[in-house]
Fold Glyoxylase-like metal-dependent hydrolase (Beta-lactamase superfamily II).
Amino acid sequence: MDNITALGGEVYEIDTRMAGYSGITAGYLILGDRPCLVETGTSTSAPIVRDALTSLGVGPADLATVVVTHIHLDHAGGVGDIARFYPEAEIVVHEKGARHLADPSRLMSSARMVWGDKLDTLFGELSPTESSRIRALGDTGTIDLGNGRTLSSHYSPGHAKHHVGLIDSGTGDLYVGDAAGVYLPQTGDLRPATPPPDFDLQTALGSIALFESLAPQRLLFSHYGPVGNVAETLERSAEELRVWVDLTRRAHSEGMDLDHAVAMVRERTRERYAALKDDDGTAEQFELLSGAPSNVAGILHWLNRVQP
């Protein structure tokens, strides 16, 4: 299948084809003794992910674990569907997200407020998962991949209060979710993801420092793909956060409303990203994943809390 890439170490990247786009959201299958899916993608992506798993030899009774870095719909919107397709799989999530997978009604209504009519085409509907199948993680936790190999979970809020990073003892791969930002392999661009309501600068920088301390061999971005240059990339993640926060803070101190703040930050950061100079849809992809309105709104929300 053309949406599967072997990454070595029995790890396979699956393009979940979010909203029909390629290269936007990745799920990862760790095959091994106890197959584990990291990130499900959206609900509308679930059949695509199932087909990919089938082609890799993982049948309905074979998947041992599904783990999500956090419960935003581009990462976990397919959990209910995937749980139904794979009735033996345990669903693993941070304890602050567990109840929303069991009862998604609040999560879906707040997502509908943000996305409106776009919700159905972009994400679809997160179906509930039986709470008996959900394992809620604390600040750390371990997922058994079989044969002594583990996936260790590390609480990494800042992007979202229910976010974890996951490190594979077999490969040294660190699944960063959105805590290190959004990476575009076509251009090498990296941009922060700072949506409301949970963004907090010190917490976000703390999560990046935690990732550095885990000394991973490789970063696996949910958006999008593997990056081998670990130290430089995490350093850049922190720098990007500071740039966006400094600019938004300036807009905030000048009393700008959201629209004017977004326009100013967009203008002042444009030169940082090759994607925005392309006219091949790459810029549209970037805006969908790490849109200036969402990023600036998240930073303003935080600023209003810490320096009203």
